[in-house]
């Protein structure tokens, strides 16, 4: 029952200030977020790729409040692409972005202009256009160095906008990926649409606090939905990215891939930095494509809290470290 409480805290500014300032937090955070700067993470990128792993890099940050912050997010990703260009790793290192960090939730002038008593209702509220304007240069820059971007899935209220941005970007950059969440009722239909279109789709269980009207609440229901959706992706024409640390789902994924006649380079596994690291290496050594989602940066609060919520033992470790200080 702790998970929902931690997820609620992950949206609280007061908790953000408290936890971000706690003197011991950083050593606990480091397990999941290996650095704050590009200089911190470049050695990790070099080490992991030398071990046969692939990476997807996430500059942490979400729920920003001003357009300047959204532009700063874009610039942080562009700086990352510049460093990746020097490393010449191509598609072995791709990018993951959260559109909320690019301004998706902000009121934007472009949308406001369309509003009014008789004007057409805007298709999307807030900063949809702003997020699109900020993410496009990142996708372009990534394509120029031979890699791609995946749009992370955030809470369910953001997803229609995310899928519209994804579809728009794919017209020019068909490799642009997106994430779907097994816990949402809508996802089976989303998977059917995406599997038919040849896109890159990462399937995850889902990490946000979602109401019972839109999402399964029980682990066994989420796991069953995950398997159904994964079957759709494996039997489809797209490139499935299996985002999970769950050993049962990983063996089911291998079996579904085999039955669908997929070769090892026709799908991949993805796991988070700091979680089941031995398994990353084991799967890579077995000849699977394994991509490690590696988050870095200073605004780590939301990302860190979701990792705590996923495993109560993490919270116990975190609290113990605060008490023992
Ligand atoms: P499950 O939670 O059942 O965990 C299986 C096992 O993995 C656990 O028993 C434990 O051993 C280990 N484990 C899992 N989480 C752990 C943790 N935090 N600490 C320590 N051990 C842990 N979600 C989302 O909503 N939008 C997104 O865009 C993404 N993106 C994303 C990318 C990638 C590459 C991954 C792997 C995951 C995401 N997620 C996500 C998060 C996802 O929704 C989910 O919350 C986590 O992956 C945990 O679910 P598992 O499938 O690992 O299963």
Automatic annotation (TrEMBL):
It catalyses: L-proline + a quinone = (S)-1-pyrroline-5-carboxylate + a quinol + H(+). Its EC number is 1.5.5.2. Binds 1 FAD per subunit. Transmembrane segments: none annotated. Substrate binds at residues 98, 306-307. Residues 45-317 form the Proline dehydrogenase domain. The keyword Hydrolase does not apply. It is an enzyme of class 1 (oxidoreductase). Keywords: FAD, Flavoprotein, Nucleotide-binding, Oxidoreductase, Proline metabolism. One of its GO terms (molecular function) is proline dehydrogenase activity. Pathway: Amino-acid degradation; L-proline degradation into L-glutamate; L-glutamate from L-proline: step 1/2. GO terms for biological process: L-proline catabolic process to L-glutamate. It holds the Pfam family Pro_dh. Its cofactor is FAD. FAD binds at residues 181, 205-207, 219, 244-245. PANTHER family: PROLINE DEHYDROGENASE 1, MITOCHONDRIAL, PROLINE OXIDASE. This is proline dehydrogenase.
